[in-house]
Specification:
about 350 residues; mainly alpha; Cytochrome Bc1 Complex, Chain D, domain 2; two-stranded antiparallel ribbon; 4 strands; about 35% helix; about 0% strand
């Protein structure tokens, strides 16, 4: 816990230098990476990390490069796979030297709109978050300063870093370039989006599922609010009575935060099993069963998880609606992948 507290202080001290919350909403038109959905609110981009092609190229190259890990065995894309909405189909993923992870890898999309990052909802900028898997023992277990020195010896990375940020590869350019790339990961072209913008219509079953989603009977929308289908807030959803993973309490050290995790987006939810912070539930049917049961009634469980009863056809309708949140164009977007 002390190590986490020190690391959080280090993040704030190092990474907020020149990356404060003096952010400017929106971006100019003209490039694919500045085309934000009209039916989304304006994103907030750090003033010192406005996107351009060079910064995004550098960040994308690093995202896919195992040089970030101490043994050069895994990259960001090892756990955050484009074909699975930048998530993984494994409950947890191994890190370097086969060290097993403890949390399910969440999908990466619409990150430009999030007010805080990590499962603990503990970090205020994406630039800060980039450093976490690099230093985590069961992820990359590396030192970002050492990585910068390695990258400086590679002409491609050295020249890109100089062009992108006016300096040699190091913590500044590594964290900011990967954040710049990850902010381009926008998912906003699902059936739900087409219906919302008047370009399509739900089937009767999907319409019924949407009605149930919005109803006080299920309370789904209270935590999974439109248009991002999350409030981004930490919550204890009653998955366990007592949690092995303390969740947000790992950051705050407050007993009242035990078992609280940032509410995940339901966008692309049909593409990103398994579910929950530990990947312990494998199907959408079982997820609905969990919430219908009312949870395990632990000490910090949210009162919103209180149980409900659905008929078989209602459950099928709710799942049909959730599947409308899948965005096939997102997982097929070649801008997000390295050239073949």
């Amino acid at each position: 816990m002390k190590r986490l507290a020190f690391f959080s202080f280090f993040l704030v001290f190092v990474l907020t230098t020149g990356c404060e919350k003096n952010e400017t909403p929106g971006l100019s038109e003209g490039n694919w990476f500045t085309q934000y959905p009209a039916h989304f609110p304006a994103p907030f981009i750090p003033a010192d990390n406005q996107p351009n092609a060079t910064r995004i190229e550098l960040g994308k190259a690093l995202f896919y490069d195992p040089i970030l890990s101490i043994d050069s065995s895994i990259s960001c894309a090892s756990c955050h796979q484009p074909k699975h909405a930048f998530a993984s189909l494994k409950a947890t993923n191994p890190g370097v030297y086969g060290r097993q992870g403890t949390r399910n890898a969440p999908g990466l999309f619409n990150l430009a709109y999030q007010p805080h990052y990590l499962r603990e909802a503990s970090l205020p900028t994406l630039e800060m978050q980039i450093l976490v898997p690099i230093q985590e023992h069961n992820e990359f277990a590396h030192n970002i300063v050492d990585i910068g020195e390695q990258l400086a010896l590679i002409p491609y990375y050295d020249s890109l870093s100089q062009l992108a940020y006016g300096q040699a590869p190091g913590p500044y350019s590594i964290t900011r370039s990967i954040a710049a790339f990850e902010r381009t990961l926008i998912s906003a072209n699902s059936r739900y989006d087409k219906v919302s913008t008047g370009k399509s219509r739900y089937t009767p079953q999907e319409e019924e599922g949407y009605r149930l989603f919005l109803s006080s009977k299920t309370n789904c929308v209270k935590c999974h609010a439109e248009p991002f289908f999350t409030t981004f807030e930490p919550m204890n959803n009653g998955l366990y009575f007592s949690y092995k993973d303390p969740g947000r309490a790992r950051f705050t050290n407050l007993p009242t935060d035990s078992g609280k995790f940032k509410i995940p987006s339901l966008r692309n939810v049909a593409l990103t099993p398994p579910y929950m912070h530990d990947g312990s539930i494998t199907t959408l049917e079982a997820v609905i069963d969990h919430y219908a049961s009312g949870g395990k009634s632990g000490p910090n469980q949210s009162p919103l998880v209180s149980g409900f009863t659905l008929k078989a056809e209602e459950k099928a309708a709710l799942i049909a609606f959730l599947k409308t949140l899948s965005d096939p164009t997102f997982i097929q977007n070649q801008n997000y992948r390295l050239p073949e």
